[in-house]
Every structure is written in structure tokens, then in C-alpha cells.
């Protein structure tokens, strides 16, 4: 059987132009998709890097922790409070009090009231750590002229106390009152400060053990 083959037509110039245009479009789409994948990947890597940096401790926070650790090593272990009486003590010899006519002398000796506030709630370690902080803070505040809240914050930052440990900065006449959060390892120590030039003062106070900073006991009026 004889097969009749038709003539094969040669591509015209118009077909060449259409084929070239189609190839160009396909190549452009492939490059666009590739570029999109690279941009997405780069964006994800950048966000991950930023997150990692934000989780790293700041230089200031590291320096503050080193300060706290140094004071802690110089103080006794937690748990002992020599300021709180542990039991009944034998009364010492006392001169008899004069009794008014018609009054009956007390049958039992009068004992002093137990301590309250920071003296009862803070242990020997807290008092030791407090003394270290107070010494350096008072010395710096006494040298501060015109102790406004902004200047007091800057001074405390310079001593290594980060903003998260400085609370309730408030102008008080010619000085500034503030609190320092010194809680560490379950402790409740804080400091009540008054920046007022030569008469600056810092005394211990007691804060809640956990959670946001809140003073529960202090002796400063």
C-alpha cells in the first residue's frame, strides 16, 4: 500500500516570533518564582535572627546580676534572723518600779513587744545585702545636685540598677523618693530611698515574694 506524505511546511517568521515570546514568558515566570522563594526564606531568617538577639541578656542586665552575685557571696546563708527572738529569755535584774498607792504590782515581768515590719520579715542575709546596696547608693545620691526623678534614675542606672528594678520615682519637695527591687532567690528585700543631697537616705523595706513589685512593709514614714 502506498502512503502519500504531504509536504512539510517550513516555519514562517511569524511562528518563530511567537515561539520565542512564549519561551521568554516561561523563563520570566520561573525567575519570578525563584526570587519569591529566596525573599521569603531571607525574611524568615532575618526575623529568627532578631528574635534570637532580643532573647539574649543585655549588657546592663548582666552587669547588674554580677553586682547582686558579688554581694550575695559576701553575706550569710538565707534563713537566720537574729533580730527576731527565738524563745523566752530570762529577764535580767531590774530595779523595782515604784507602785502607786492602791495599785497591785504585776504578777509577771513585762516583756518587750516582738519586732514587726522589716526587722521581723527580713533575715540576716537580707540585712547584709541591704547594707552593701545602701552604702553605694547613698554615696552617689549625696553627690547629686538638684535630684530630680530623671537625674536620680540616671544615677541609679549608672550604679548598675536597671529600669525594671527602679520603681515609683516621685518628686518630694526638693528631693525624689523611689524604691529599688532587690528580690533574689525567693527573698523579699527592697529599698526605700530618698534622694535629697547631703541628707539622702536609703532604708530596707519588704516586698511581695513573687509577681509585680509591691511594697508590703517599710519603716519610712
UniProtKB/TrEMBL annotation:
<feature type="signal peptide">
    <location>
        <begin position="1"/>
        <end position="30"/>
    </location>
</feature>
<keyword id="KW-0732">Signal</keyword>
<feature type="region of interest" description="Disordered">
    <location>
        <begin position="36"/>
        <end position="122"/>
    </location>
</feature>
<feature type="compositionally biased region" description="Pro residues">
    <location>
        <begin position="103"/>
        <end position="117"/>
    </location>
</feature>
<protein>
    <recommendedName>
        <fullName>Secreted protein</fullName>
    </recommendedName>
</protein>
Amino acid at each position: 500500500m502506498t502512503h502519500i506524505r504531504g509536504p512539510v511546511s517550513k516555519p514562517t517568521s511569524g511562528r518563530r516570533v511567537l515561539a520565542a515570546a512564549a519561551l521568554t514568558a516561561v523563563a520570566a515566570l520561573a525567575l519570578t518564582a525563584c526570587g519569591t522563594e529566596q525573599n521569603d526564606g531571607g525574611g524568615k531568617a532575618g526575623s529568627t535572627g532578631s528574635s534570637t538577639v532580643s532573647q539574649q541578656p543585655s549588657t546592663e542586665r548582666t552587669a547588674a546580676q554580677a553586682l547582686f552575685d558579688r554581694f550575695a557571696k559576701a553575706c550569710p546563708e538565707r534563713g537566720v534572723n537574729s533580730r527576731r527572738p527565738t524563745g523566752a529569755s530570762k529577764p535580767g535584774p531590774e530595779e523595782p518600779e515604784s507602785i502607786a498607792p492602791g495599785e497591785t504590782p504585776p504578777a509577771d515581768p513585762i516583756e518587750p513587744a516582738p519586732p514587726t515590719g522589716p526587722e521581723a520579715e527580713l533575715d540576716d542575709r537580707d540585712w547584709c545585702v541591704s547594707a552593701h546596696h545602701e552604702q553605694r547608693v547613698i554615696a552617689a545620691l549625696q553627690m547629686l545636685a538638684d535630684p530630680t526623678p530623671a537625674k536620680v534614675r540616671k544615677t541609679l542606672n549608672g550604679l548598675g540598677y536597671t529600669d525594671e528594678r527602679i520603681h515609683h520615682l516621685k518628686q518630694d519637695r526638693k528631693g525624689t523618693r523611689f524604691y529599688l527591687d532587690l528580690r533574689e532567690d525567693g527573698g523579699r528585700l527592697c529599698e526605700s530611698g530618698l534622694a535629697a543631697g547631703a541628707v539622702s537616705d536609703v532604708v530596707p523595706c519588704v516586698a511581695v515574694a513573687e509577681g509585680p513589685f509591691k511594697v508590703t512593709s517599710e519603716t519610712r514614714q
